[in-house]
Write a structure and sequence with these properties.
6 helices, 234 residues, Zinc transporter ZIP3, single chain, mainly alpha
């Protein structure tokens, strides 16, 4: 038991360092790209990185999360002898997508208060331009927060899955798969947040650090659950 706990603690620390380095790397990358005067090449490179990031999250959703949820749903039907043929998991995914989008729009409307006072046409145009800029910043911040919360929840569950493993082979196998997966995922999370908030380096850094804690925190929570279970069996 002590050997497994020490191994889990070491792997949690390794996972934290990996995710924080990968998460903060896009900040340095985007900063160096902006210093480059070749605008067309920079724009093309950022577009390719954005496509890569989008592909990672689409793959995470459709190749990892969705099949896992469908498998659990089938087992639930078999266990309780249910005959639900309607694809409820897919429906819930769609509901969740539109719920997050609706929540984002509501917050944007609440934050974007318009002061309807009289004035010249130039003043009105200036206010509209200022409103659009502020709205863009608010949307970027809100998208970063909701995006990070969703990915953090996913990371905690992955960490718990690692922490509850009770044999060395299972721990190492799952760790190395998560090591590669979380490295790529953390880089893309950092890239998306950095692009949404290019002028808020401190906020991006704080969000990246908080996100880096999620998988190790889930892993330690899984270890704690397994220790309690072992003590309850003795």
């Amino acid at each position: 038991m002590d050997e497994f706990i020490n191994l889990q603690l070491f792997l949690a620390l390794t996972m934290f360092l990996t995710t924080i380095i990968a998460g903060l790397a896009p900040i340095k990358l985007l900063t160096s790209i902006k210093r480059n005067k070749e605008g067309n090449k920079t724009s093309s490179f950022l577009s390719l990185l954005s496509c890569f990031a989008g592909g990672v999250f689409l793959a995470t959703c459709f190749l990892d999360l969705q099949p896992h949820v469908n498998m659990k749903f089938r087992k639930f039907n078999e266990q309780w002898n249910l005959k639900i043929k309607y694809p409820l998991p897919d429906l819930l995914v769609c509901i969740g997508f539109f719920a997050v989008y609706l929540l984002e729009e509501i917050f944007v409307r609440l934050f974007s208060t318009i002061n309807n006072t009289g004035g010249s046409s130039e003043q009105i145009k200036s206010k509209r331009c200022s409103l659009e800029i502020n709205k863009g910043k608010e949307v970027g911040i809100l998208q970063s927060i909701t995006f990070t919360v969703a990915m953090s929840f996913h990371s905690i569950l992955e960490g718990i899955a690692l922490g509850v493993q009770d044999d060395k082979a299972g721990i190492l196998t799952l760790f190395f798969s998560l090591f590669i997966h979380k490295g790529i995922e953390s880089f893309t999370v950092g890239l998306q947040i950095s692009k949404s908030n290019p002028e808020k380096i401190k906020m991006v850094t704080i969000i990246a650090i908080i996100y880096s804690f999620m998988t190790p925190m889930g892993s330690l929570a899984g270890v704690f659950i397994r220790v309690i279970y072992c003590f309850s069996q003795t």
